Amino acid sequence: MLNYVLSRLLTFIPTFLGVTLISFAFIRVLPGDPIMVMAGERGMSDERYAELSAQLGYDRPMYAQFWEYLTGVLQGDLGNSFVTKRPVWDEFFSLFPATLELSLCAMIFAMALGLPAGVIAAVNRGKFFDRALMSTALVGYSMPIFWWALLLIIVFSGNLGWTPVSGRIDLLYYFPDPTGFMLIDSIASGQKGALVSALRHLLLPTIVLGTIPLAVIARQTRSAMLEVLGEDYIRTARAKGMSPGRINGIHALRNALIPVITVIGLSVGTLLAGAILTETIFSWPGIGKWMVDSIFRRDYPVVQGGLLLIAVMVMVVNLTVDMLYGIINPKIRKR
Amino acid sequence: MDDALSTEAEMVHARPGRLREFWFYFRENRGAVIGLWIFAAFAFLALFGPWIAPHDATAQFRADTLVPPFWQEGGSWKYILGTDPLGRDMLSRLIVGARYSFFVGVVVVSIAASGGILIGLIAGFAPQWLDSIIMRIMDIILAFPSLLLALVLVAILGPSLTNAMIAIAIVLQPHYVRLTRASVLSEKQKDYVTSARVVGAGYLRLMFITVLPNCLAPIIVQGALSFSTAILDAAALGFLGMGAQPPTPEWGTMLAEAREFILRAWWVVTFPGIAILVTVLAINLMGDGLRDALDPKLKRS
Fold first, then answer.
1. Quick one: average pLDDT of A249-278?
2. If I label A162, which of A276, A304, A330, B285 is the partner at 20 to 30 A Cα–Cα?
3. Do A147 and B277 touch (CB under 8 A)?
4. d(Cα B238, Cα B258) in Å, to the nearest integer?
5. Which residues in chain B have Cβ-Cβ distances shorter than 8 Å to A289?
6. How distant is the Cα of B254 from the closest Cα of chain A, in angstroms?
7. Pick from B31, B149, B266: which is nearest to A154 by CB?
8. Chain A residues 252-271 with a CB less than 8 Å from chain B
9. CA–CA distance, B128 with B147 (Å, rounded to integer)
10. What average pLDDT does the segment A244-266 reach?
């Protein structure tokens, strides 16, 4: 077991170095001179240019710059944003809770609907419910979520006027945000209506971001359930006269959950990619919108640092899922 | 007499052609067949769109801006699905737009699949150290969320449809590498490969003629799935302003242009999205059918 964990950790190191190298190299080939971007419209004298270039270390050889970047990264120093002048690290972690809150809600939404849908479809294999649910799931799976978001806005914000179009909470409310999670902070603030406002802002983005994971979970649960339902121990349980609800809900689902949980863990990347679109459309102040804005503003340190942090996050989650899977299923370990 | 018997035996034992067999299984999945028909219509529009479209896709009828579809009050048969804010005919733009999405799918899948298969074959046959290096590089690419990586790549290369296609192809390619390598590793163990090697087949022959044809089934399925992913990602990039640039009637770009009119003119937003959804759905239906038909484990005997 220890060997398995160690070998998995060892493959993490070269991947991490590679990810760092890529996010470093990307910025070096981006068109436009970072220093001229800092200068903005006013332009800059040659002396000042040389001075800044030396200050930022751009006049040194590439490998030296990479080494410096790498040692900085390992100490949590990702440079400062050109636009806000704040450290990228701080900006990332002040915006991250917004994305995390949205992603968690989307995942809960997806699981709450996807798991039952998959179980119902599997139990009614080939019948009407199965077909209807799986067709719906395929539509969800094929959904261009940026269009889905616009459609929901037309119906729920435009025609019905139920939900706001952007942001995390009405401007009416202002309170400190110790946790960064709007739902928790709004309760903690004790202001009337704050939680309701936060929930209403959260509703559409959650549905939009949760749609594709929902479809994936429903499809995966169905196929995992079908596999498990064919096993001998299910037949035994049936022969013993156990009620179908107990068999499906407890015996089968528990074992079917293993592959489903893997899929959920591995969809972090999908979720973050979806967050880019969802946050941009709903003006949700999270890291997805932050990355898109920075790309348009050519805020190189932010693009570089954000890319790296997101990739490392995906890697850590995948590694954890892998290891958990190895713990649950010993067959994986031998390889 | 002998002759007659042997021909009869041949007839009994002759295997139906591979394509025939494939079609037999594919046909059983009704959704897949529907998907195939929609895809055929999509391909037809992609090829002949400009000659079918009632109007020029970029012509601006300044007198008729934001005309609703024909069944709504104020709509007319002249513009069946209405016009956009610049007075361009929606239906014509959608029809001509099919070719961009189709083109994106074909180009992205060709680049990603050919590159991925080649690298995957090399990794499968290479010594351990080279295999490890290749797979680590693929791990690195897969660590980035695909849309984010494509977005940054397009920002570097400059926003255009071509660059969006290159970026998406790079992002999708590791999946082919992994699939090909995995099939190669399992095929390599089999006796027919050993016998080919004993007879003296060189590495190139082993790779491309002996092993590759037997690895193709999962790759074909992946091809269908990444065709739809490519269309979705290209539309998303267009929507973010990093793909095809206006006035190109690419569906994602059309959505981006229509965003500010969502509360005033629903048709400008609704139709391009339906076009994307239906196309992607058809391809995914087809992909599911392909998987069922090509995967021998799932075949009902």
1. 81
2. A276
3. yes
4. 12
5. none
6. 11
7. B266
8. 269-270
9. 31
10. 79
Nearest CB to A14 within list B136, B228, B263: B136
CB-CB: which of A146, A158, A310 is closest to B145? A310
B203-261 confidence digits (pLDDT tens)? 888 888 888 888 888 888 889 888 999 999 999 998 988 888 888 888 888 888 888 88
- The verdict on residue A322 lying in a domain is yes
Tokens of B26: 């594919």
Of all residues in chain B, the one with the smallest CA distance to A138 is: B281
Residue A86 gets which letter from DSSP?
A: S
For chain A, how many structural domains are there in total? 1
Mean pLDDT of chain A: 83
Q: Are A133 and A119 in contact (CB under 8 A)?
A: no
pLDDT digits (tens, 9 = 90+) for A163-221: 887 777 777 777 777 777 877 777 777 777 778 888 888 889 999 999 999 999 999 88
- The H-assigned helical ranges of A75-193 are 88-123, 128-141, 145-152, 182-189
pTM for this entry: 0.86
Buried b (16+ CB within 10 A) or exposed e, B253-269: bbbbbbeeebeebbbbb
**What pLDDT does B231 receive?**
92
> pLDDT for A26-48, tens place per residue?
777 665 566 666 666 666 777 77
Q: Which of A31, A153, A276 sits opposite B262 (nearest CB)?
A: A153
Q: pLDDT per residue over A216-230, tens digit each?
A: 999 988 988 888 888
Q: Find, in chain B, the residue whose alpha carbon is nearest to that of A11.
A: B136
Residues of A in contact with B259 (CB under 8 A): 150
Give the number of other CB atoms < 10 A from CB of residue B98: 25
Q: Which of residues 3-22 of A touch B (CB under 8 A)?
A: 11, 14-15, 18-19, 22
What residue ranges define each of the domains in chain B, with the CATH number in brackets? 34-51+64-295 (1.10.3720.10)
| d(CA B71, nearest CA chain A) in Å | 20
pLDDT at position B37: 92
Residue B137 backbone class (left: φ over 0; alpha: ψ -120 to 50; beta: rest)? alpha
Question: How high is the pLDDT of residue B301?
Answer: 36
ipTM for this prediction: 0.84
Q: What is the amino acid identity at position B204?
A: L
CA A163, A168, A171: angle at the middle one, nearest 5?
90
Banded model confidence at residue B6, pLDDT cuts 50, 70, 90: low
B280/A142 touch (CB, cutoff 8 Å), yes or no: yes
Indicate whether A54 belongs to any domain.
no
Among candidates A142, A314, A315 on the partner chain, residue whose Cβ is nearest the Cβ of B228: A142
Q: Which residue of B has its CA nearest to A159?
A: B263
Owning domain of residue A242: 88-334
- pLDDT greater than 90 at residue B88: no
We report the CATH number of the domain holding residue A246 as: 1.10.3720.10
Chains A, B: CB pairs < 8 Å: 124
pLDDT of residue A278: 92
Name the residue in chain B with its Cα closest to that of A276: B148
In a domain, A126, yes or no: yes
Ramachandran category for residue A243: left, alpha or beta (phi over 0 → left; psi -120 to 50 → alpha): beta
A310 and B CB contact within 8 Å: yes
Out of A15, A139, A150, name the one closest to residue B259 (CB).
A150
B131 at A interface, C-beta within 8 A: no
Q: Where are the alpha helices (DSSP H) in A124-242?
A: 128-141, 145-152, 182-189, 194-229, 232-239
